[in-house]
Amino acid sequence: MSIRNFSLMPLKINPVLDVAYLNQVYGDDASIIHLIFDAFLGDSVPRWVSLQNSIDTRDLAQAASIVHGLKPSFTMAGVTWLRPKIEDLEKAIKAEVDTSVLQQYYSEISNELNIVMPILAFESERLAKI
Fold this sequence. Notes:
This protein has 130 residues and is an all-alpha fold. The chain has five helices and no strands. Mean pLDDT is 93; it is low at 1-9.
């Protein structure tokens, strides 16, 4: 029986994501990162989409609840730069600012999220195979 030394290869996650954060929290655990990305896409993104209706119908209690619940998931998925924007949106909702302002916040964050979602989907699929 021989003992082989295997060197761990870095996961080489797309640098659009906060790779430093992902490495710090999850290390080289491809399976856990895959699960986090998959959960973000399957749970957090649909909740984000539902937020638009809460904003449009001015259901601010529901909107605040959705945003508050989503804040950690952006960080956990390595989309850390959106966290402060999500927090600003939450503050604006709680301050009951005009609907058009809330819609603008939502639109700006959604535009960035739309860029990141295919990256998360690709990385989730790739990491599931490691």
